[in-house]
Amino acid sequence: MTGPAGIGKTRLAAAFASVVYADGGSVRYAGAGGAASAETISAIREACATSLPGLWVLDDLGIYRESVASLSASLHEIESGPALVLGLLRDVGGDPAVARLIEAVDVNDDGRRELAPLDEHGVRAIARSYVIDVADLPAEQILRASGAFPRACTSWWSTGLATRLRAVWPPPRSGWRLGGAVRRRACDSPTT
Question: Best label site of 50, 148, 182, 192, fewest CB within 10 Å?
Answer without folding.
Answer: 182
